[in-house]
Amino acid sequence: MKKEELERKISGLEKAIATCKDETSGYEDSLKTTQKQLKDLGKIALPPVVFDEIYEAVDNAVCEYDFNDSGNYNIEYGIEYDGKVYCESIELQHNNDLIEAIVEKVSKIFTEMEAPEDDQVNNITEVKKVI
User: CA–CA separation, 87 vs 92, rounded Å?
Assistant: First the structure.
């Protein structure tokens, strides 16, 4: 083969690869979208207004939490060879307080439904008590 023929063949292969990459990226996007739809299939759909209210409730709870209280943290210190003290690790100890604050704010927006499963469990418990 001549140099010109090889250069044309290389150019054609590069174009074919670019075309395949474009098609592949389209399939990848479609795959990601379909996977997200499958993942979201079992979720309860909420209007954007509700999501905004949830966001605002969580934001308020986190903003009102006292992150400056040093009693909320477990801090381990270390000493370097030159005598400098440094923070080796820091851990939030009372994260349940933060979780409760968030749940409290979110529960002001929603009420918990009575689930038929709960009634069945209660009925089974009552039957066991009778027996």
Answer: 14
- Provide mean pLDDT across the span 20-38: 82
Strand pairing class (73-79; 85-92): antiparallel
The region of weakest confidence among 61-70, 93-102, 108-117 is 108-117
CB 92 within 8 A of CB 112: no
- List of residues 6+ apart from 54 with CB closer than 8 A: 106, 109
Give burial (CB, 10 Å; 0-12/13-18/19+) of 76. exposed
Kindly list the domain boundaries of the chain, sorted by start residue. Answer: 1-43, 46-111
The mean per-residue pLDDT over the stretch 31-52 comes to 80
Residue type, 131: I
Write out pLDDT tens, residues 79-93.
Answer: 999 999 998 898 888
Report helix, strand or coil for 131.
coil
**Residue 57 CB neighbours (<10 A):** 20
Chain-centre distance for alpha carbon 10: 45
pLDDT at 85: 93
